[in-house]
Amino acid sequence: MNTPLISPQIASSDSEPMIISAVSHSSQRVTLRHSHSRGQLLGTLQGLISIEAESCQWVVPATHSVWIPPNVQHSLLRSHGPFEGWSIYIQKNACTKLPVKPYILELSDLLREAITRTMSWHNSELEPEQKRLIAVILDEIRTMPQVELALPMPKDMRLLKIALALSDNPSDNRKINDWGVWAGISRRSLTRRFTNETGFNFTQWRQKLRMLKALELLAAGKPITEISLYLGYDNISGFISIFRRNFGVTPGNYQKAMINRLSWRNFTNTTIRNDNHINSKLTK
Predict the structure, then answer these.
(1) 3-class SS at 183?
(2) Calpha distance 176→182 (Å, rounded)
(3) Separation CA 104–CA 48 (nearest Å)
(4) What is the reported pTM?
(5) Binning pLDDT at 50, 70 and 90, where does residue 156 land?
(6) Per-residue pLDDT for 265 more than 70?
(7) Quick check: 61 and 213 in contact, CB under 8 A?
């Protein structure tokens, strides 16, 4: 079990307009439910994360981020694979015009670059241009539309066990009967509860999970054939067809579009120095 990126006490302080943190772990990361008086925008540089906020549980890819308003209970259920994460904590009085419910937003190019810029700040007092950049970040959070990309997680502990196992290994092609035996739940209950708790049947949920993982791997520049095999597809044409049906473009075209965002990887080199190291900056 891991502690939050910064302590809830620091995250509840109100002296600095923004606190920026980054952390890297060679293994999965889990944090307990907690809250703080600041709003929080968090995401990863690679991998999927399972987030719980209020009554919602989602699987979120590295191409997106999670907005958590002030004083909302939340936890990182699990990072799936090595974890490289970032988070910005926004002063409570600056959150009055921001969304009052947790939601998922895509990392726009502008928001991505603005966050990257803040990670290079070293001065203790904010310059006028830095204050304007913080205002840009707030505007992006406020105006970016909510997306339906994130995948709801089931709440039943038996179903959650299955969902987390698939998140760790999306290529697992066990049939629904086998999953039921493994988790100790009947096929009928598994089928009914999965749909009731996530809005998707089991097959749809697994397919959407694989598509989220595909987005991350494509953004990382992995070959499409390799991605297809990793996600458990028997042939690349089937993977391409399902991807295009979900996102309206082929995996190849999506990957080309992501090339322009490769500067985000510089974030890793400039802010995350060593394994298990937290780098936090207070902007005053």
Answers:
(1) helix
(2) 10
(3) 13
(4) 0.69
(5) very high
(6) no
(7) yes
Alpha-carbon gap, residue 144 to 4, rounded angstroms: 26
34-85: per-residue pLDDT in tens?
A: 888 999 998 887 667 878 887 677 778 777 889 999 999 988 767 766 667 7
Angle at alpha carbon of residue 233, lines to 213 and 183, rounded to 5°: 70
Q: How far apart are CA 86 and CA 101, in angstroms?
A: 20
Torsion of CA 142, 47, 116, 269, to 10 degrees: 170
DSSP code of residue 264: G
Separation between Cα atoms, residue 284 and residue 277, nearest integer Å: 23
Domains contained in the chain, CATH given = 8-149+266-283 (2.60.120.10), 154-248 (1.10.10.60)
The two most distant CA atoms of the chain are separated, in Å, by 61
Gap between the Cα atoms of 56 and 74, Å rounded: 9
Comparing 36 with 15, the larger pLDDT belongs to: 36
List strand residue ranges (DSSP E) for 107-183, in order.
151-152
Q: What are phi and psi of 242, to 5 degrees?
A: -65, -40
3-class secondary-structure state, position 12:
coil
Give the DSSP H/E element, type plus range, for residue 162: helix 157-168
Using the predicted structure, report yes or no on whether residue 196 has a pLDDT greater than 70. Answer: yes
Predicted local confidence at residue 2, as pLDDT: 64
